[in-house]
Write a structure and sequence with these properties.
It is elongated, with a radius of gyration of 22 Å. The N and C termini lie close together (11 Å). A two-stranded antiparallel sheet has the order 1-4. It is an alpha+beta fold.
Amino acid sequence: MTVRFKQIEYHQMTITKDMAVDEENIIEQGLTVERFKEIMNAEDHTDEESDMYHEIISGWAEILDSEEDLWTDRKGGYDIDYELEEDEE
């Protein structure tokens, strides 16, 4: 008889994305490049500017490269659960 089960690991991952957006896309959304950079650096901004900023980030920015770091796997700091599978008859 064989007992089958699943091992479930709960990890945390950091994803780093190199991104770019054209100056003309920033201006089309109603911000200057300088203001866009200020908002990115967490300077005070209005709700309207926040909406413009997020539209640029989510709608116009291009992902040039990305890297995934499954750091809990490297460091060994993750939880593990085990689940029995149903017996096949």
